[in-house]
């Protein structure tokens, strides 16, 4: 055996031995146990699938998310002046979505080529992404608590729903989101892997445990807790609204269902897929096709989740009645409002409506709903 | 609204046309290995697959002279010998290139 190995690796490297080698390997391919030898599960199709449409979808989410959330921030500062708790949360939600969206051009480039930005940016961008993810979901959760206080605990809410308390709770949310994402900041690294520069977490010690931990962290903080809080708040709100006789009741209940369904429709699939992928790492299923399908599912469900941050401005802000009026005011001050509005698909008629109906909305809650 | 639809559609079409190569964190992994010996003459290179890369098992991946990849155990004696042999020949190649 020793001799045999030395023989092929020896100093005879003339062209004749080369061709001999190739011939032998061809023979081996066809007749020996080559076909029985296990081959790596090829993910070429997944990579092609990802690279063909992910970069453009990332950029689409980036552009739509950027425009929508900047518009929210501009309107909030210009017309609302952050007087209530709802305004503070809306502003923070827009900021966290903006943060999240800003990391997308980097991921977009990463899917097309490789990670060329180095380890520091790998850490920072991954951190920003996860902080944006957590804080966005936490602010949606706080919005549901805010509405719960306004509608179910109306008396208590007079004291509690101030901009000051909004600011304090927002700071706490930012701290939780920042610290929950610290593992990402510590362990993410850019390194060469199979001739491909990647940006991935490199955990010390047991990789499987870390992977399971970080997945469960996302599942619990990003889905389970928000689900429990939102389910409680909105069910209490609906219970209260059923008893009151208000013509806006139905619209409000519909809106609540829209918020809940949209949130879970966009985020649950992603959570299920990353949970299954962490199970895959533990070796529960060792099947190439299953693994490939999970990779496809990951790409699709991640994009679905990303689109949710474009929808936040629409759900929480643009659908509010006051917002449309603010938007009109904003665009009236611009030089070429007609062209701009054509592009955002909002055909606004300026002259037919006056701003007389501006003060008809009584509470900020119905506005938010 | 029509403009937006048109924009989305054209972006999607463009995405299909471009069809760029690459992917993000998807790695080709060996899911199992076999004890069947791979002859040294048919392999030209190898790399080591680790659990840290996101694979279920650690393994040695040999690349044959025809560019095919074969999964072998990480620590079997014959695998270690084959790896050492490949290391030695690649070191010699690098040395001769420098000279």
TrEMBL record, chain A:
Pfam families xrefs: 7tm_1 (PF00001)
Keyword terms: Cell membrane, G-protein coupled receptor, Membrane, Receptor, Transducer, Transmembrane, Transmembrane helix
SUPFAM superfamilies: Family A G protein-coupled receptor-like
Keyword Amino-acid biosynthesis: no
Entries under InterPro entries matching the protein: CCR1-9-like, Chemokine_CCR4, Chemokine_rcpt, GPCR_Rhodpsn, GPCR_Rhodpsn_7TM
UniProt key word Transmembrane helix: yes
Transmembrane segments: 56-77, 89-112, 124-142, 163-182, 220-242, 254-276, 296-319
Topology in the lipid bilayer: Multi-pass membrane protein
Domain of life of the organism encoding this protein: Eukaryota
GO biological process: calcium-mediated signaling; cell chemotaxis; immune response; inflammatory response; positive regulation of cytosolic calcium ion concentration
Signal peptide (residue range): none
Subcellular location: Cell membrane
Alphabetized Gene3D superfamilies for the sequence: Rhodopsin 7-helix transmembrane proteins (1.20.1070.10)
Family named by the database record: Belongs to the G-protein coupled receptor 1 family.
Name of the protein described by the UniProt record: C-C motif chemokine receptor 4
Organism this protein belongs to: Dromaius novaehollandiae (Emu)
Lineage, opening ranks: Eukaryota, Metazoa, Chordata, Craniata, Vertebrata
From TrEMBL, chain B:
Source superkingdom: Eukaryota
PANTHER family referenced in this protein's UniProt entry, alphabetically: SMALL INDUCIBLE CYTOKINE A
Entry keyword Signal: yes
Alphabetical GO biological process terms: immune response
Protein source organism: Dromaius novaehollandiae
Pfam family, one: IL8
Protein name as catalogued: C-C motif chemokine 19-like
Keywords: Cytokine, Signal
């Amino acid at each position: 055996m020793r001799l045999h190995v030395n023989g092929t690796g020896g100093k005879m490297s003339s062209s004749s031995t080369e061709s001999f080698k190739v011939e032998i390997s061809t023979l081996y391919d066809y007749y020996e146990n080559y076909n029985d030898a296990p081959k790596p599960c090829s993910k070429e199709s997944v990579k092609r699938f990802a690279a063909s449409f992910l970069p453009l979808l990332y950029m689409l989410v980036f552009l739509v998310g950027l425009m929508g959330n900047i518009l929210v921030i501009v309107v909030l500062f210009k017309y609302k002046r952050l007087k209530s708790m709802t305004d503070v949360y809306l502003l923070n939600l827009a900021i966290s979505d903006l943060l999240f969206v800003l990391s997308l051009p980097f991921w977009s480039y990463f899917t097309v080529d490789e990670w060329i930005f180095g380890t520091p940016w790998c850490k920072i961008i991954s951190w920003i992404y996860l902080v944006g993810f957590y804080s966005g979901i936490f602010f949606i959760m706080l919005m549901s608590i805010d509405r719960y206080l306004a509608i179910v605990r109306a008396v208590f809410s007079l004291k509690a729903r101030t901009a000051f308390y909004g600011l304090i709770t927002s700071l706490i949310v930012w701290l939780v989101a920042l610290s929950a994402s610290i593992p990402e900041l510590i362990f993410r690294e850019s390194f060469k892997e199979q001739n491909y520069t990647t940006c991935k977490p490199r955990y010390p010690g047991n990789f499987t445990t870390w992977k399971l931990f970080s997945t469960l962290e996302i599942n619990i903080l990003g889905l389970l807790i928000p689900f429990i809080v939102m389910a409680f708040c909105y069910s209490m709100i609906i219970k209260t609204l059923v008893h009151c006789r208000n013509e806006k009741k139905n619209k409000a209940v519909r809106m609540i269902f829209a918020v809940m369904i949209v949130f879970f429709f966009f985020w649950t699939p992603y959570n299920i897929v990353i949970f299954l992928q962490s199970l895959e790492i533990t070796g529960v299923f060792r099947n190439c096709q299953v693994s490939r399908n999970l990779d496809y599912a990951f790409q699709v469900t991640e994009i679905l989740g990303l689109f949710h941050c474009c929808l936040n401005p629409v759900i929480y802000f643009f659908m509010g009645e006051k917002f449309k009026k603010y938007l009109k005011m904003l665009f009236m001050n611009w030089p070429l409002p007609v062209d701009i509005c054509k592009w955002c698909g909002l055909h606004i008629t300026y002259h037919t409506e006056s701003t007389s109906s501006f003060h008809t909305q009584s509470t900020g809650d119905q506005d938010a709903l | 609204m029509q403009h937006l639809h048109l924009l989305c559609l054209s972006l999607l079409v463009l995405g299909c046309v471009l069809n760029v190569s690459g992917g993000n964190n998807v790695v080709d992994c060996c899911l199992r290995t076999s004890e069947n010996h791979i002859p040294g003459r048919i392999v030209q290179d190898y790399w080591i697959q680790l659990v840290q890369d996101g694979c279920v098992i650690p393994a040695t991946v040999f690349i044959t002279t025809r560019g095919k990849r074969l999964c072998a155990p990480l620590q079997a004696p014959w695998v270690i010998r084959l790896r050492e042999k490949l290391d030695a020949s690649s070191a010699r190649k690098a040395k001769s290139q420098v000279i």
